[in-house]
Structures are given as C-alpha cells and as structure tokens.
Amino acid sequence: MSFVFYDIETTGLSKHFDQIVQFAAVRTDADLTIIDRLQLRCRLMPHVIPSPEALHVTRLGIEQITDPTLPSHFEMVTEIRRVLQSWSPALFLGFNSLSFDEEFLRHAFYQCLHDAYLTNTQRSARADVLSLCRMTADLRPDVLRPAMDERGQSMFKLKPLAEANGLTVASAHDAMADVLTMYALCKIIRTRAPEIWSQVMRFSQKASVEAFITSEEAFIVSETVGNVHRARIVTRIGQHSVQKARHYCLDLRTDIEQLRKLSADDLSALCRSPQRPIVTVRTNAAPTLWALYDALPEHLTPFDEAELLERVDSFRNDAPFVERLLHAAQTAEKEYPPSPYVEEQLYGVEFPPPQDKALMAQFHNVPWERRVDLAYEFQDQRYRRLALRLVFFERPDLMSASLRGTWQAELHNRLMAPAEAKAPWRSIPAARREAERLIATGLSGEQLARQRQFLSHLDAAVDQIALARAS
User: Fold this and answer.
1) Phi then psi for 125, rounded to 5 degrees?
2) What angle do CA 76, 20, 334 make, to 5 degrees?
3) Burial of 129 (0-12, 13-18, 19+ CB in 10 A)
4) What distance in Å separates the CA atoms of residue 317 and residue 309, rounded to the nearest whole number?
5) What are the angstrom distances between the C-alpha of 32 and each of 89, 112, 184, 192?
6) Maximum CA extent, the chain
7) In angstroms, rounded to a whole number, what is the distance separating the alpha carbons of residues 127 and 190?
8) What are phi and psi of 233, to 5 degrees?
9) Does residue 89 have a cis peptide bond before it, meaning omega lies within 30 degrees of 0?
10) Dihedrals φ, ψ of 372, to 5°?
11) Using one digit for the tens of pLDDT, what is the confidence trace for 241-282?
C-alpha cells in the first residue's frame, strides 16, 4: 500500500460553511519514497466570506483567492477527487487531519456531488500524524521531543515541533510546505522508532483496532479533549447498540466503588461531564492505542500492571454494574437536532439511494446544459439542492431567469445577514466586525494592509449586491 500525505488551507474553521482554497499532497511508496505530487488552488465561492483571522494566519491576501484565473472550487475538488482516486488504495495521513483536514475534504466532496468517504473505503485507510507524534514523544522521547511554549508546556504545533527536532521549515501555513514537514517527521519516526510506526499503521485498520481492544484486558488510549491531551488506562465495557464502531471503555484510575453507588441518572450526568470516566474509542478513526507492556511506568501510576488487571477482574465480575455503566455511557451521548441547512446534512441522514449515486456520477459526465434537468431527478433533496447550487455557481446563464433570481436573492440574504444574527455562516457584516477588531489589536505593515484590502473587498461586494437588487 502507498502512503498519501496531504494538507489543506481554508477560509476558516467551519467544515460546513468555509471552504478549501489550497490543497497539496505527496504520494509515496511503501518505503516512503515520494513518487507523485499534487498542488492545487482555487478561487472563493460566491457564498463564502473568509475569516479575517484565517487570512491573517495564512498570510493570504483577498486578491489571491478571488483571482478569476484560478479554477473554481468545484473544478479543484473534482481534480482532487480524480487524482486521489487514481492513487488509491492508500493510507491517507495528515497533521490533525482526522478532526480537520479530512472533515473539510469530506464536506467538499459531498457539496460537489462526490462520494464523501474516499479515504476509508475501497481498501484505503487513514491515520493522523499528530497522534503519531504524540505517541512517539510519550513512548520514545529519545526519538521525538515536543516543542515548548512560553510557559514551558509541551505543544505539538507542526512548525515548532519540526524545529524542535532539527528540521528546517520553509514556510508555515503553506499546504505543500506543511505536507513536506509532516512527511519529514514521519521519516524520522519510521527510521528510529519502527515499532511505533508499525503500530500506528496497524491501527489505521478498523478490524485491527477491534481485535486489539476486545482481546486486551486493559490498554492505553491517548485522547485530546479541547486543548488537553492525556493517556488513559482503560478496559473495554461494550459498544453502542446502533453505531457499532463506537466502543466504550472505563478509565481504570476512576474510583470504581464510588461509581457503583451512583444512580442511573447520576451516572449519565457524570458521563456527560468533563470528569467523565468513560473513553469512547472509535474503531474507524485510527485511535492511538498501546498495550500495557509497552507503557512507561509514569503511564501506569499509581498502579502497576498486576494491580490494574486485578481491578479489571473485579469490575468485570459485576455484570449488572457493567451493564448500568454501559447504558449510562450511551445515554450520555450528545444528540444533534437535524439542521435545516444542506451544508450540515452530510451526517445523521441516510446514505443516498442507489439511483441518486448513479445520478451523481452522471452529473459529472454530462455537459453543463444537461445538469439543470438532471438536478431535478435526484430523489434525495440534499443532492437536488446541491446540484442546482453548483449550476448557479458555475453556469447561471443556463438557468431560467426566475430560477436564477431565486438563487440570487438567497445568496444576497446570506451574505448580508446581520453581524449579530446567529447564522452558522460568516456574513459580510460579521466579517467586517471581525476584521475591525483584528486591526484594533495593533496590526501594522503587510498585516494591516491585508486587512484593509479585505475591508475594501467587502465594500465592493456590498455595492454589487445593492446594484443587483436595484436592477
């Protein structure tokens, strides 16, 4: 199997309402020799207003992502899909990719009428280089050491981490530069800690994760909640009754006797709290795991391995309590109400019916002149709406005047939503307020010029909307 290292730059942090503007990837063989590269950029979509903070961090000027000579988002995403499909099956790796890059990629595929799950279907798998680095620093500090912040605390941001380990980083927040940086970190780990590299590669496979967590009496799981990272000693207690990839594990440092005294409601409340004793291991999300015999003494404190296994035996012999705890873990799961916005409807909704999957493929293979009619053949309303939106973005001239006017009015209403409105997207007024706040922090030089240029862009967009409404 080959490896694909990839990275994206985006207009903000919302996987639903922001967009990818830069994508880079390298493909390697099994020995991590680079055999192919891909680097793409695109222009801003009509309904997306970038975050001033994102422009500040990535050092992108608004003129760079509104350049009319760049491909559209749809064209870029379709090319990404084509190349990655040709590179598959592969193991896809990114830095913090499972919670960020891959989510953006999935939503981009979805919104462009492609199957969203390219990286973990058809014998492909995924893993996270951030988790690999955390695990290596935990178990083999002689191989990889974390960077330190101004308070002397460990941190695992890509550029500081690379520099702390002797690597020269050309440019931060450039997609290809970040790809080559994480690739260099992986080469260090694979060369000097091959046992950790092999273990992380093993757990990129769902079946391997399930076999491990169901056979080990206790094991270590590394998790990050918010900005807090910790290694927890756990034992598996069961799995979700419907979502079979979700396995619940008990933190063995918990006061188990105190848990036994809690009512069902109190157990559920505790499982929803920051002090929850339950760790959820998703077998399809490349979790970071290791066996007790691989752990360092500080991972097991205040117990030794024998004491931990005794606690497991005592806990599992109380089957009614195990069932109560499993029930509490599942009832504590967050429930998300259905969203009225198509961008937020990838998950929690049934997969498209087979005829719609066939229409998605057909949509990409017929001329634009056929795509308006084709859009109305989708049974799933999500894909019908997305198909019509793509035509409006790419070839509005093919729509009837009435249909084009409807979409234009919706676009203008979205762009001009008041800053104080609780809209899940970023409107022009909201972006203006963010930019002005950022400028007030004392920006100067190029940073200040970039934000002022962005404000000018917003002013021009408002003028265009007013002109369109007047006509």
Assistant:
1) -145, 175
2) 130
3) buried
4) 12
5) 15, 31, 10, 14
6) 79
7) 14
8) -85, 120
9) yes
10) -65, -50
11) 999 999 999 999 999 999 999 999 999 999 999 889 999 999
Strands 90-94 and 34-41: unpaired
Beta strand extents in 151-307 (DSSP E only): 154-155, 219-225, 228-239, 246-251, 278-282, 288-291
**C-alpha dist (Å) from residue 157 to 22, 133, 179, 199:** 19, 10, 14, 23
List of residues 6+ apart from 253 with CB closer than 8 A: 232, 233, 302, 303
Q: Give the whole-angstrom CA distance, residue 232 versus residue 300.
A: 9
147, containing H or E segment:
strand 147-148
Does residue 22 sit in helix, strand or coil? strand
Q: Which residue has the tokens 């009435």?
A: 402
3-state SS, 148-176, equals: ECCCCCEECCHHHHHHHCCCCCCCCCCHH
291-343 confidence digits (pLDDT tens): 998 888 888 888 989 999 999 999 999 999 999 999 999 999 988 889 999 99
The pTM of this model reads: 0.94
